[in-house]
Predict the 3D structure of the following.
Amino acid sequence: MTERRVSNLDEYLRRDDTPLARALRRIAPARGVSYLNSWQKETTERVAMIPVVIVAAPISAGLALAVKLTEGGSGWFVQERNWGNDKRMKVYKIRTMTVGAEHVVLDHHDKILKQGDSADSRITTMGRILRKYELDELPQLVQVLTGHLSLTGLRPVYDGLVVEKRTNRPKRFPTWYKGYAGSKLGLLSMSSVLLDDDLRKDVTKRIHYDIFYIKNANLGLDLYLSYKISEKMLDKLIAALRRKLSSRGTTFPTVAETHVESTQDADILIGASARD
């Protein structure tokens, strides 16, 4: 019964002919880049972030303090990202690598490790846990509240990834870059919500989903993505609790799968328009 209700909710949020969808279109009628830069999107997100930041801020501060006490150095990490057209922006995180790791380039099997690669030895033990549950991103919720980031949008990327996107997808790169440089960037991207961790590393897939979002962004889609990330985080929490209780010999009630695989969700939502 629970699985059916959640599945029905998932389908309901994807539809554009429901009373909710019509109401959202009246609130924010713009689509695409116009919507991404609209006051309706910014106002909605900033108001929604008030209770979230009240809860998340002390957790973020506690985790940063724990990093400082266990690993040394600052618990915070600030990195400049490329915003296109020679613009730069700062992204704040809880530090997950060793002190000074950003100045070190390591080789692994004769290949330079990509940012975020799980094989990177610079990631600390606590950092791996923070990254697994995406807790290192918590400080960016404050950036959403202050209006420096959107909650949903294209993720700010480092310089090397911009070059990689241009190299891998030369035909689609101008469309992606125009939307990337012309809109406020976000904490959550469509690919980060709908793709699993392995597929998120695929630049080709990410640029597909980014372009789809650039063209189709609207308040209803943002609501759906917010719902999916909440579902995703709840699934991770339940899985962690199940492992913890199982290690103690306690049987954890089985929770029925509430959604199809993330890649299937993405295919249902995007369809052929996200592919070449």
Notes: The radius of gyration is 19 Å. The beta strands are 76-84, 87-94, 107-108, 111-112, 150-152, 186-188. Confidence is low (pLDDT under 50) at residues 108-113, 254-262, 271-276. The chain has one domain: 2-274.
